[in-house]
Specification:
The chain has about 475 residues and is mainly alpha-helical. The protein has a domain of about 180 residues: Up-down Bundle (Four Helix Bundle (Hemerythrin (Met), subunit A)). It is built from 14 helices and 2 strands. Strands 1-2 form a two-stranded antiparallel sheet. A hairpin with a 6-residue loop joins strand 1 and strand 2. Keywords: Membrane, Transmembrane, Transmembrane helix.
């Protein structure tokens, strides 16, 4: 089998129809902007991770005199790679459906705020002496510049989420009704999460140690934000299945009831947070909502998707099979995350094993759908070959699964989480084996991620070119 480097970058054999070629001119600019924010955040996150590696080299240590710089860089890396990437992805697809109907002033204000937010996060990484706080869900740098950046991003994204919910969608076959319902559910969940963050900030006691304060502020909203990410993933599954088969998976009424079952219970969280984050009910209710409201809806949609694939497999040609590769990888990572989560009994590396599978599933769905998005945004741009797409999706999906399993294996032998370098106390062969498996999977996933970024950056640069694009 040939190496990924031998895969051709593009296939010039497809000539788009006039209708497809003209679509790029009508593609909402806001959708392109949010998509660029998402891809750009991944690029910046990758550069920060590279900086973390370079800074560990002995002969370059003199360049980094602030011992907290690396943990601040880690905080910004996580926020860019998870918070910004996921929310920008949801916003891009919502803008694809409704962007031309959202008031221009609201769009400009939300994009400007979001851009300033990203600049604030990056500036926070270089603030001398600022304390990095590795809180769950939304880690922070305890500095006004970073906090202002985070607030600006959430204000911008929240403004556009609200605007996208307030306007009807354009009639378009690009986003089927079932996928659009799920994307609107994602927007609603993210707005509930922002309301929960605001309520928690208002009621959390300011005199707490920084780690306790930010952990309480982020806990409830962070849980709800993950529900928004799951709704986004389900919407992308439905979109990809429609593009693969030509038919919608479920009726809008069915997916609407499922979306209500997923999102409506989360609406209690702002009220719970307003009652005080120091109360045991705040942490417990957020945890139980995540435990019991996500997996039933996901498994129902997954079952409907499998039935859809079985029904249409005999009528499908080989074209577009990469969509099923990405779907299968995202679904398997989701199920693996559920299984690992069921074994969590304490604060071990089983926890990051679980959530790396969960966030990997959302990321893989976003990556898979991004190829269709990029093609629709610029139908005349030269796109990647189907074989390259499959390689990229397999590398990232397999690497993320092995990465999560390695963490889980080390956690099964008792290795604690949030420990780095000399802080780790690796005592048993099982812990060494788990960390080795984790490292191998991480390298493979990084290779898949870098390949994705290379393809996406090439696509972004070609948005204004006149070359032709394949459409597998």
């Amino acid at each position: 089998m040939s190496a990924p480097a031998a895969v051709p970058l593009a296939s010039p054999t497809f000539v788009p129809s006039p209708a497809v070629a003209a679509a790029g001119a009508r593609f909402p600019a806001a959708a392109r902007g949010w998509f660029a924010f998402g891809v750009g955040s991944l690029v910046l996150a990758g550069l920060l991770s590279l900086l973390l590696v370079v800074g560990r080299l002995p002969f370059l240590g003199w360049l980094f005199t602030d011992p907290l710089f690396f943990k601040r860089a880690l905080v910004v890396h996580v926020d860019l790679a998870i918070v910004i990437w996921f929310q920008a992805g949801a916003l891009a697809y919502l803008a694809w459906a409704v962007g031309s109907r959202v008031p221009r002033g609201l769009t400009v204000a939300s994009v400007v705020l979001a851009g300033l937010g990203i600049l604030g996060l990056l500036a926070g990484a270089v603030m001398p002496g600022a304390q990095p706080i590795l809180a769950n869900y939304v880690p922070v740098v305890d500095h006004p510049v970073f906090v202002a950046g985070l607030v600006a991003w959430f204000a911008g994204s929240g403004l556009y989420f609200a605007g996208a919910l307030a306007v009807p969608a354009e009639p378009s076959a690009a986003l089927p009704d079932d996928a659009l319902v799920a994307l609107r559910a994602s927007a609603a969940a993210h707005l509930i999460a922002l309301a929960t963050f605001a309520a928690a900030w208002r009621t959390t006691l300011p005199g707490l140690p920084a780690i306790g304060y930010y952990e309480l502020v982020a806990w409830g909203g962070g849980h709800v934000m993950q529900v928004g990410n799951v709704a986004l993933m389900l919407g992308l599954w439905l979109l990809l299945l429609r593009r693969w088969s030509g038919e919608s998976v479920v009726s809008p009424a069915t997916i609407r009831w499922l979306a209500v079952a997923l999102v409506l219970p989360q609406a209690v969280m702002p009220w719970v947070a307003w009652g005080g984050t120091s109360r045991p009910a705040y942490s417990e209710i957020a945890t139980q909502l995540m435990r019991w409201t996500i997996f039933p809806v996901v498994l129902i949609v997954l079952g409907l998707g499998i039935r859809h694939v079985v029904r249409h497999a005999a009528n499908r040609s080989a074209g577009g099979g990469w969509r099923l590769v990405g779907l299968a990888g995202s679904a398997l990572l989701t199920v693996l995350g559920f299984v690992l989560g069921a074994f969590i009994r304490g604060s071990s590396t089983l926890v990051p094993g679980h959530y790396h599978c969960a966030i990997g599933a959302v990321t893989l769905a976003l990556m898979t759908a991004a190829y269709d998005f990029s093609r629709e945004a610029a139908p005349r741009a030269l796109g990647p070959s189907p074989r390259l797409i499959r390689w990229q999706l397999v590398l990232f999906g397999a690497g993320q699964a092995v990465f999560g399993l390695g963490f889980a294996l080390a956690g099964a032998f008792g290795l604690g989480r949030k420990q780095y370098g000399v802080e780790q106390h690796v005592r048993s062969l099982g812990e060494y084996l788990g960390l080795g498996v984790m490292g191998l999977g991480g390298l493979v996933a990084v290779a898949g991620g870098l390949l994705f970024l290379a393809v996406m950056l090439r696509g972004l640069a070609a948005w204004r070119t006149r070359s032709l694009s394949p459409s597998p």
